[in-house]
Amino acid sequence: MPKLKVTVGERDQLRDRTRRRIEAAEEDVSLEDAQPVLNFESYAELSRLLSQKNLELLEAIAEHEPDSIRHAAEIVDRDYKQVHRNLTELEDVGVIEFEGGGSGRSKKPILAYDGLEIDLPFTDSANDTDVALS
Questions:
Q1: Count of structural domains within the chain
Q2: 69-76 and 80-92 helices cross at what angle (nearest 10)?
Q3: How far apart are CA 46 and CA 50, in angstroms?
Q4: Where residue 76 sits, what CATH number does that domain have?
Q5: Which residue of 37, 77, 99, 134 is most buried, as measured by CB atoms within 10 A?
Q6: What percentage of the chain reaches a pLDDT higher than 90?
Q7: Which domain holds residue 100?
């Protein structure tokens, strides 16, 4: 399983990379080693992914492989509704996936990647971002 590269404010670079990947696919060039990328518009958006609560959940999933959202909530000693909300957000950005969940079955959270590789450029491309100072 690959690592997910997480970037902030690199819209132009991400668009260029996507264009190159499309061109490579059209030319039948292998993309096996292509690293998936998740780009956030601002540091504030990134900080939601990297919140202490979310990182605790990701670590709990990696270490304990909970068989349900309720089990994950028990592991991190938090309210089910809060954990459900956090896991849904993590699923929305593609960091986790759920198995099962049909016909009254519990949804099992699983990691979609081996880890996160955070790329924070401190160059002109980062000038458009909203820095959260809190």
A1: 1
A2: 110
A3: 6
A4: 1.10.10.10
A5: 37
A6: 37
A7: 4-126
